[in-house]
């Protein structure tokens, strides 16, 4: 049994199409079919039921999927650890970041690239649900996002800091003269909010769910940068995590009154897998950055 055969098997099991799997693997369909047949012959079972219309996993094939995936994860982990022993602090670091974390990363990114110029960094901004899926598929080394409301069996989360929701307005807005703003006051405001599915919006919706308050939402969007531009140029009010406006000019945050609005910022990693030295070093630099220390509740990471 070869690792490439397991990779071929998993891609075919995922797509349930020999032609699509071959295309995704950049091999010919005949090569793929031949390797799957070799694997089935060695195991003594059929892994797929094939006919002219569709491809389906057999019971043996269904049983094979998690075992093949675990084998490939172990093999990839072995290769990663050996490569890092040969060349410490090189390679690629893939980091998934939710939009609201962006202002907190700047110092750590500058420090890391200055100290380790040979590490190539891919910073990927997406909603949390997409990033967690990418993390589970080993497309990311870790994710920076708030603590999820749902549990991911294969992911563990380390709390890095705590923040809260805040009403965000332009500098000089009437609300900035107040120490806090109530939900009743927000009902009277024209609001621009992050789109449903983004974590700050989800947290705000949970607060509203147990009340009769229904704010007047004019605009919803999933681009925080554009949202803040709208706020700066108008009397619109938004609700975001306090950390989202860290060092952002032209806007201010006003705490929400009498709301359970605490949010925990976390580093999310896969359980029981090798953690790159470069990832560990980035954790350290991030936890020691001034931006994180301002909100930090846990500096001792992994």
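-> sequence recovered:
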């Amino acid at each position: 049994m070869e690792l490439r055969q397991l990779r071929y098997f998993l891609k075919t099991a995922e797509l349930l199409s020999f032609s699509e799997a071959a295309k995704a693997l950049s091999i010919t369909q005949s090569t793929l079919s031949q390797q799957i047949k070799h694997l089935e012959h060695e195991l003594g079972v059929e892994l797929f039921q094939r006919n002219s219309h569709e491809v389906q996993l057999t019971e043996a094939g269904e049983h094979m999927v998690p075992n093949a995936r675990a084998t490939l994860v172990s093999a990839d982990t072995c290769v990663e650890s050996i490569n890092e022993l040969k060349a410490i602090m090189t390679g690629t670091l893939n980091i998934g970041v939710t939009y609201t974390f962006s202002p907190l990363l700047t110092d750590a990114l500058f420090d890391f690239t200055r100290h380790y110029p040979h590490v190539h960094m891919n910073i990927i901004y997406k909603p949390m649900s997409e990033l967690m899926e990418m993390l589970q598929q080993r497309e990311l080394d870790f994710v920076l996002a708030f603590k999820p409301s749902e549990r991911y069996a294969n992911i563990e989360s380390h709390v890095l800091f705590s923040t809260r929701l805040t009403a965000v307005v332009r500098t000089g807005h009437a609300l900035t003269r107040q120490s806090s703003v109530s939900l009743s006051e927000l009902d009277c405001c024209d609001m621009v909010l992050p789109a449903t599915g983004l974590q700050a919006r989800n947290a705000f919706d949970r607060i509203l769910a147990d009340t009769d308050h229904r704010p007047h939402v004019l605009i919803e969007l999933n681009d925080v940068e554009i949202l803040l531009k709208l706020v700066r140029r108008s009397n619109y009010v938004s609700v975001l995590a306090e950390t989202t406006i860290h060092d952002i000019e032209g806007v201010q945050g006003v705490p929400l009154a009498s709301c359970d609005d605490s949010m925990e910022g976390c580093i999310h990693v896969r359980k029981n897998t090798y953690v790159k030295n470069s990832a560990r070093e980035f954790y350290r630099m991030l936890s020691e950055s001034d931006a994180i220390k301002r909100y930090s509740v846990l500096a001792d990471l992994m």
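The two ends are 36 Å apart (CA to CA).
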